[in-house]
Amino acid sequence: MKIAIGNDHAGTEYKFAILEYLESENITIFNHGTDSNDSVDYADFVHPVASSVNDNTVDLGILICGSANGVSMTANKYANVRAGLCWNKEIVALVKQHNNANILCIPARYTAIPQAIEMVKTFLNTKFEGGRHQNRIDKIPISC
User: Which of 65, 105, 133, 144 is catalytic?
Assistant: First the structure.
């Protein structure tokens, strides 16, 4: 499995903890996030993650910022991205089961690191249910 991860300054500590977990699972990681706590613009770190998910260069993505709103809004501009903003593992399970999310967006200011790790585990181990949910997903993209 290949995962792209990105973060801004609010998510640096979370990213390092998540990287440690992913490495322990022998997952190939593409780190597009900042390694610093210095203020940066989240979009600069979202685009490489969302682009690689959009183009199927990686299987899944993880994005982390303070509220996760900015990263999810930016990632969802890509046609083949379904980025879900989640704050607990129950929401993560639903966003995978019902929405076939391919990017997990974690709000660092509203979750604890152990909680974020559990969310990542749930994201990686939950399957899309398909069926009636596929119909709904097919209606997400728009053509202008």
Answer: 65
Which residues constitute the domain of residue 81?
2-138
Active site residue 98: yes
Query: What is the Cα–Cα distance from 85 to 76, expressed in whole angstroms?
Result: 11
28-31 sheet: strands from edge to edge: 28-31, 2-7, 60-65, 103-107, 83-85
Mean pLDDT computed over 9-31: 98
Whether residue 25 is contained in a domain is answered as yes
Active-site choice (98, 105, 133, 144) = 98
Decide if 143 is inside a domain. no
Query: Hey, what's the torsion of the CAs at 6, 12, 17, 22, to 10 degrees?
Result: 20
Q: Is residue 32 part of a domain?
A: yes
Q: How confident is the model at residue 142, as a pLDDT?
A: 78
User: What is the number of other CB atoms lying within 10 angstroms of the CB of residue 58?
Assistant: 21
What CATH number should be reported for the domain holding residue 126?
3.40.1400.10
User: Could you tell me the pLDDT band of residue 144, with boundaries at 50, 70 and 90?
Assistant: low
CA–CA gap between residue 140 and residue 101 (Å, rounded): 12
For the question of whether the overall pTM of this predicted structure is more than 0.90, the answer is yes
